[in-house]
Design brief:
Shape of chain B: globular
Strand order of the largest sheet of chain A: 8-9-10-1-11-19-12
Radius of gyration of chain B: 24 Å
Structural class of chain B: mainly alpha
Oligomer: heterotrimer
Order of helices and strands of chain B: HHHHHHHHHHHH
Largest sheet of chain A: 7 strands, mixed
Number of strands of chain B: 0
Number of helices of chain B: 12
Strand content of chain A: 15-25%
Largest interface: B-C, 61 and 53 residues
Chains: A alpha+beta (529), B mainly alpha (313), C mainly alpha (309)
Chain lengths: 529, 313, 309
């Protein structure tokens, strides 16, 4: 047995030596690198072509905007130095500030901005609305451009400072002239970070480096406005799709920042002295239920109204978020905590009054057609919504056929107008960042222009009249009244149902400082100590 | 011998052709519409139709197949719908982690399982034997991801000896590369160890009763020499066969292990591609894995000549 | 991929002669006894699930999500009566009772295992008989089988599942397809070797029609190896279903299987391990028992293995 014993001893020795060696060689990081895990992997890199939030986040790294909202929600100039509104309110003149340059060298010119605005407005709903008021957008000289309107509207600055998808990012003219329905292949921007295309591995990681030539504004950063000062050398977005593993990695120090730690795991993070939770987005997000008005039975307004009485917000919030610290029931469709929030028209709604729901179903002549409810299974913050919806709808008298699929399939299927039992759909649930839906023009689901509306295709001329009124109105007090009217109208025609607000903290190691209060996660101002 | 190798290589062609047909058909039968997925959230039906046309998805199936095969033979694996990169590039990128993991696992598994199996056979009937056999049946019975999570919990979280996840390219430091591969390789090797240990034990046991073993002992050889030089060498053929077949089991495990440990390899690429209905990538990966499997088995067959001189090709 | 079928494949199982008292010998083997008992126990649990103190496994209760094992809750019955209910294994992230899901999961997981085994054996048997008997089809069939076998089973299963909506049928078919080639090879080998036997030649000479030949002479020799193979396939199928669920392409969660209970609970592993622990243990036990059963059956039904210990 001596031979065998010698073999075993040798094997153990080799094993031990190897293991010891693995600790020896670990390259030290000379640069400051922030290793972050975002909510999704970056595969598409065109923030105009898609509204996906991960691409919007990428946009904020690499591009800059003309205006931005500060921490209080006030619109402040960013790339713009000064602007003037003519007395008749029909001409806006914008002058860019000094020192703005593209990543490949040339200075930012007004013509670049004009082209960028046009490309953005072609895809974005708020942009389209704005353009319906616009007579022309022209570059006057290299640093100045004008927007000439057909009639006054309060939308111009609101649109140009839009914080979330689609954000009117500025791109070089040659890039902005790409057809809006074709994805970009040139990622040049003028933002505080540069995208390292050669190190980008979809499904694995995306890398950004500090743009040394970026000239931040002089004011301190506030919200998405102010000086965007980058305090790290490099940011890596790692794709770790297993939530538990992402948290494990954060706790072990292999990752510095997790954008969307699962709410159920927050207790684990709170226990650890090395981790800090940042409530960076105080307005939060809103869950939404969207019915398909092209299909029976949701073509009947009474059947749709029954939904308001079937649902209650707490069940959804409990079912997905669980921890009351991180959600709020809020009947205001325009997000509690913002100027246009109100509960007008919401009495008795969203309180799971099953009797009333059943009565409405009878009134609407609901014949028991199973509602095809799309259930997305791979996005944690959404996947528990459909089962809760199903259980509430069934208690209210609906028959529900819940079909499970991944989010990509939901996205593909919701675009279809086919009958629900032939590849179409009746309903699905999703979530909006609060910053996206704070007024009736920006909140895309209110658009009730029938065919031109988003999937769900609500058709309500009265709603469109109200939204137009809002677009024209510049007085905030009157805007509020119109917003309330919009909400009341929505409870009648039911373009969508708001199912409560929820909050997502960022989890980061204590060594990470300077995460700003913003509606979307941004990486300037963050430092690693 | 060379003639045999050439003949075998030639024989892989019809097999790979069948694989290609199966893979192509399989993915063309899906109801999901990749054109709609590529077109994106806000596209209307014209845009979707235009994309379908551009990708050639509206052509008859046979035409699509011929075009696809043609491109394949030129090394053009197409462009991934989902990742927006050339599939060949994606695969080349992901090859290193998977190959590293697979090699490390095989080495680890063989290094642990063969001695265990030999010992179990040698101490046939003892508690050691029963433990080895018991553990090996357990090894087939627990899903790979459960083993993974348990190992992470014990070694990475509680004991803090090893990193929780991630992969380091070998170019960035051999130490880190090895360190990050230890837990994933351990996870993946459990099934392989179970398999190899069992077969080793069975084969060696069978061989131990042969006459030449008695002769060797009678000649005065030490037990270890008897075990290694005579018993093991003669039991090698089935053991090596199992290793070859085990590679197929390995591929299944790689998919899960890479997901658990966040290793950017071909396994994770496959999962992402399947979830996204990304045909070109799924096809390319399946073809690649099948080719690898076929070639590895050829290699295994060739090693028989090394172990058993009676086998000649 | 039936890893468990690999040992069976290494030494191609030779036809087992029918011996008197086979059943008795089979039942006396300890592996068979233990394995069969555990499997039977789990099967019974699955069958009587509704009477084992369970509630509807799909019933959501968001208020009670992620509770630790042992938590109590009052349930209001339809008649207004309130009963206390203890969540023995805790609740999952939608508030469903894990104990109920595990017990009902026994049903589904075992059904999947058995269905896959039966289907793959049935289909494989048919194809194998055809391949063994009809010469000109043999070549084509075996090439296709080789092609199928070259594709790693998990990948094939993943590919098949991605074709259609996730559902019980899709998953079953996805797991069956990769198992068929091995069964076909097994059956074909038996058919080919039987054909050469003198008594078969004699039977052909006498003019026995082929179907009778198949039933009288070939089939009996396939029973034993197919039972062994089927058992291993069953265990392997349960594992593969768990892996498919883990990857997100298994059976949707309204129908609980041990695999999808674990898959749903994996992201909470560190603070709520009960989601993985209980179904994991049951799954391991079940597959272990099935493998033991398979081992025992192979030892007793195949004389070539009898002399190995």
């Amino acid at each position: 047995m001596g031979y065998l014993r010698k073999c075993t001893a040798a094997a153990v020795a080799v094993g031990a030596l190897t293991w010891a060696a693995t600790w020896a060689v670990t390259p030290a990081h000379a640069q400051k690198t922030l290793r972050a895990v975002m909510h999704s992997d970056l595969k598409i890199v065109d923030p105009i072509w898609t509204t996906a939030y991960i691409v919007r986040n990428h946009g904020y790294m690499v591009y800059d905007t003309l205006f931005a909202q500060d921490e209080k929600g006030e619109i402040k100039p960013q790339m713009v130095d000064k602007y003037e509104v003519a007395a008749d309110k029909l001409t806006y003149t914008f002058t860019l500030r000094d020192g703005l340059a593209w990543h490949d060298g040339p200075p930012v010119k007004a013509e670049d901005c004009v082209a960028s605005i046009k490309r953005w407005a072609a895809k974005d709903a708020t942009g389209q609305k704005m353009m319906s008021f616009v007579a022309s957008i022209d570059a006057v000289n290299d640093t100045t451009f004008t927007v000439k309107l057909k009639e006054p509207t309060g939308l111009v600055l609101i649109a140009l400072s839009k914080p979330s998808s689609n954000v009117p990012f500025m791109m070089p003219k040659r890039v902005a002239e790409t057809d809006p329905n074709t994805q970009l292949s040139d990622f040049t921007g003028s933002g505080p970070f540069i995208f390292k295309r050669d190190e980008w591995k979809p499904g694995d990681k995306a890398v950004y480096v500090k743009n040394e030539k970026y000239k931040p504004r002089a004011e301190p950063a506030s919200g998405l406005a102010g000086g965007k000062v980058v305090k790290v050398d490099r940011v890596e977005w790692r794709a770790i799709s297993d939530h538990q593993q992402a948290i494990n990695a954060l706790l072990a120090g292999e990752i510095d920042y997790v954008e969307t730690p699962k709410h159920d795991l927050l207790p684990l993070l709170k226990k650890d002295a090395n981790i800090k939770l940042w409530d960076y987005n105080p307005l939060g997000n809103q869950y939404t239920f969207r019915p398909n008005q092209l299909q029976k039975p949701f073509d009947n307004v009474k059947v749709r109204q029954a939904l308001w009485y079937a649902f209650n917000q707490k069940d959804f919030l409990d079912g997905v978020i669980g921890n009351p610290d991180y959600y709020k029931t809020c009947k205001a469709m325009f997000v509690c905590g913002t100027p246009l929030a109100s509960e007008k028209g919401m009495d008795g709604l969203l309180e799971s009054n099953f009797a009333k729901a059943q009565a409405l179903l009878k009134e609407g002549g609901y014949d028991g057609t199973p509602i095809v409810l799309m259930h997305s299974t791979d996005l944690d913050v959404l996947s528990n919504l459909a089962p809760v919806a199903k259980s509430l709808m069934e208690k209210a008298g609906f028959k529900v056929d819940m079909q499970s699929m991944d989010w990509q399939t939901v996205v593909a299927r919701r675009a279809k107008k086919d009958p629900a039992n032939a590849g179409g759909w009746h309903a699905f649930l999703t979530s909006w960042v609060a910053a996206d839906i704070t007024n009736p023009v920006m909140a895309a689901y209110f658009n009730s222009a029938c065919d031109k509306a988003l999937f769900g295709w609500p058709c309500d001329p009265e709603m469109e009249k109200l939204r137009d009124q809002f677009a024209r109105e510049t007085d905030p007090a009157k805007q509020k009244l119109i917003a309330e009217a919009v909400q009341i109208q929505a409870t009648q025609s039911t373009s969508h149902i708001n199912l409560g607000q929820w909050y997502q903290p960022i989890a980061a190691r204590k060594s990470v400082a300077g995460i700003l209060t913003t509606p979307v996660p941004v990486f300037w101002n963050i430092a690693i100590q | 011998m060379y003639a045999y190798v050439l003949r075998r290589l030639a024989a892989t062609i019809p097999v790979m052709l069948i694989v290609a047909v199966l893979v192509f058909l399989m993915l063309r039968l899906t109801p999901s519409d990749p054109a709609a997925i590529i077109a994106g959230d806000n596209a209307n039906s014209e845009q979707v139709a235009e994309i379908r046309n551009r990708l050639g998805l509206d052509q008859p199936i046979l035409t699509q197949f011929v075009i696809w095969m043609g491109k394949l033979l030129h090394g053009d694996l197409g462009e991934s719908f989902f990742f927006k990169k050339q599939v060949a590039e994606l695969i080349a990128d992901r090859l290193e982690p998977t190959v590293s993991l697979a090699l490390f696992t095989i080495v680890l598994a063989v290094a642990i399982a063969v001695p265990l199996g030999v010992l179990a056979a040698y101490r046939h009937g003892s508690w050691l034997d029963r433990i080895v056999m018991g553990f090996s049946v357990l090894g087939f019975s627990v899903p790979v991801f459960v083993i993974g999570y348990l190992l992470i919990y014990v070694f990475a979280i509680e004991l803090n000896w090893l990193p929780v996840q991630g992969y380091q390219r070998i170019g960035q430091g051999v130490g880190g590369w090895l360190q990050r591969l230890i837990l994933p390789a351990m996870t993946l090797s459990v099934v392989l160890i179970a398999l190899i240990a069992r077969i080793t034990r069975t084969s060696v046991l069978e061989v131990m009763n042969e006459d030449y073993i008695r002769t060797a002992r009678a000649k005065g050889q030490t037990e270890s020499r008897v075990l290694v030089r005579h018993a093991l060498a003669n039991a090698a053929v089935p053991i090596v066969t199992v290793i070859g077949l085990g590679v197929a089991a390995l591929i299944g495990g790689v998919v899960v292990t890479e997901s658990v440990f966040t290793i950017p390899g071909l396994g994770r690429l496959t999962v992402d591609a399947v979830l996204a209905r990304d045909y070109p990538t799924i096809q390319a990966v399946i073809l690649l894995f099948s080719l690898a499997y076929v070639l590895i088995n050829l290699l295994v067959d060739l090693t028989y000549t090394f172990f058993d001189p009676r086998i000649r090709y | 991929m039936s890893v468990e079928a690999l040992p069976a494949e290494i030494a191609e199982v030779a036809p087992a002669a029918r011996r008197p008292g086979t059943l008795r010998i089979v039942l006396r083997n300890p592996s068979v006894l233990i394995g069969a008992t555990i499997v039977a126990f789990l099967a019974i649990v699955g069958v009587v699930a509704p009477w084992l103190g369970t509630i509807d496994p799909a019933e959501i209760n968001p208020v009670f999500r992620n509770k630790k094992p042992g938590v109590e809750r009052t349930i209001r019955g339809d008649d207004g009566k309130e009963t206390a209910f203890v969540h023995r294994f805790g609740t999952d992230s939608l508030g469903r009772d894990v104990y109920s899901r595990v017990v009902y999961g026994a049903r589904v997981s075992l059904i999947i295992g058995v269905t896959v085994a039966v289907l793959s054996v049935a289909v494989g048997l048919t194809i194998g008989l055809i391949a063994g008997y009809i010469r000109w089809l043999d070549g084509i069939i075996m090439r296709v089988m080789d092609g199928l076998m070259a594709i790693p089973a998990i990948l094939l299963a993943m590919g098949v599942v991605s074709l259609s909506r996730a559902g019980l049928l899709a998953v079953v078919i996805a797991i069956v397809i990769p198992e068929i080639p091995r069964v076909v090879r097994l059956v074909r080998a038996i058919v080919l070797s039987i054909r050469e036997e003198p008594y078969v030649e004699a039977a052909i000479t006498v003019g026995t029609p082929t179907p009778l030949l198949l039933v009288r002479h070939v089939l009996p020799n396939t029973i034993a190896p197919l039972i062994v193979q089927g058992t291993f396939i069953c265990g392997s199928a349960i594992l593969i279903e768990a892996i498919l669920s883990f990857l997100g392409i298994g059976i949707p969660p309204e129908t609980p299987t041990w695999g999808n209970i674990m898959a749903e609970g994996r992201s909470l592993f560190r603070i709520h391990p009960h989601n993985i622990f209980y179904p994991g243990v049951c799954l391991a036990f079940a597959v272990l028992a099935i493998n033991m059963l398979g081992d025992g059956l192979r030892d007793t039904l195949d004389p070539r293995f009898a002399k190995r210990v």
